[in-house]
Design a protein that fits this description.
The chain contains 2 helices and 9 strands; from the N terminus they run αββββαβββββ.
Length: 143
């Protein structure tokens, strides 16, 4: 009986420690918390995405996946040549990669103490193309 009680206590403590580790260091979906739409952009247009982070969500990196699509569906040739470049990382260090195409992902270092992240980006596309940029996925994580 004592052995069963000891095993039960150890299992409970182990589960609690594992939960705390995930709560403190696990990945957090932030997709719905980021301003996610930059409509009707032309080549060279800068834009900013903003993410508000609560203290319990503090992590040291943001994985950001963007969709780049034609604003006018009759211009399908614009999508493959369009890309988004990170103008300036919100917190020291370099993001990887420096630019992405549709469906690409940035891994951006962030300040774990920051409560508002501003991600400055610039659209690059062919002359005459108009593009929409939206957030497909945003995940806060530790590196």
């Amino acid at each position: 009986m004592a052995t069963l009680s000891l095993v039960s206590v150890l299992a409970t403590v182990g589960a609690w420690l594992a939960f705390r580790d995930v709560a403190t260091h696990g990945e957090i979906d932030a997709t719905g918390k980021i301003t996610s739409k930059a409509p009707d952009l032309a080549d060279g247009t800068p834009f900013t995405l903003t993410l508000r982070v609560s203290p319990g969500e503090a992590r040291d990196a943001l994985r950001l996946t963007l969709a780049i699509d034609n604003h006018d569906p009759t211009t399908p040739a614009c999508r493959p040549v369009s890309s988004v470049a990170l103008t300036s990382p919100p917190y020291g260090g370099a993001a990887t990669p420096a630019a992405i195409h549709d469906g690409g992902t940035f891994d951006i270092p962030v300040d774990p103490q920051a409560r508002t992240l501003r991600i400055d980006l610039t659209l690059h596309t062919d002359h005459g193309c108009r593009m929409d940029v939206t957030t497909k996925e945003a995940t806060l994580h530790n590196t």
